[in-house]
Amino acid sequence: MDHAYRSSWPLFVIVLIGLITLSGCAKNTGGVTASSATTATGNSTTAVLTKADQQISQQKIAAAQKTLAGVSESTPAIKKLALGLKYYQEAEEALDNNQLSLAKGYFDTLSSYDGTTDASFIAARQKLVKQYQAVKLANGYYNAARDELSIHDLATAKANIDKLDDVQATHPVIKKLQKKALAMKQAIMNYEASQSTSSGSDSSTVVSSSSTSSASDSSASSSSTSSTSADSSTMTSSSNSSTSTSSSSSELTTSAIIKQFQDASGVTFASDTEFNITKETSAYYQITAIYAADESSSSASKTVTDTYRYYPDSGSVTKENSATGSFE
């Protein structure tokens, strides 16, 4: 009987060792499984960001957004890059439509966004901001040339068109503006050509871009005061055009001009608003309204102004758009 007891003891030890070994293997297997899952998630995030970066570098912003949105488990890095691309797309769309007033707010948001340090995003943003600055510059030259052409200031209009031509066409909007300016440039060239061939004519005209030219003969007695008048699309070559179009307004005092402007503008200005005539042409007065600062405001030290153009012959008033520089 004592012999039977001693023979079972080694068997018990072997079974115990086997159970301990199996338990250790199970723990090790569980650890490997958890580690593998973490590694797989990290690899998936890296792959998504890499693919999105490639698409951003190729200016495929919508495709990059789709790539980021398709990830099963979004990480903070993916969310922040996706938000930056949203700001980018809003600014890009406004710029493509040449809506500079709207674009300004979007570009302010995009430029100040620091949620991601993704190199591809930052490079794409810098490129878009440079395009925005170039488009603003081109719009400024185009609007200035158009306005000066409408008041027959050919030299200044031509200078602005030349400046517009020199702007590098880094965006389709710039190309469109340069193409539209060609019509204005052609009108100026036609006018200059007519002057060299008909210096003795008192009524030769050049019609801008889309207008058609016309000429009519009338007696000297009936046209002495009207031969030099021109609408917004016609430039006259008479040497008396500047004096005749402004004869009715040149006698007005500054206070009278300001009073007429206020009446024509339809704007109710505060009694402490100051007005300065900053430019005078044969067609309009450019008037800057300077508003008194609100001492209770945090921006009291900043001077607030608006710039208008008053056309005494028609009684119309236009206001400068601070974003585009044009008068509307």
UniProtKB/TrEMBL annotation:
Residues 315-328 have a biased composition (Polar residues). Residues 193-249, 309-328 are annotated as: Disordered. PROSITE patterns: PROKAR_LIPOPROTEIN. It comes from the Bacteria. This is Lipoprotein. It comes from Lactiplantibacillus argentoratensis.
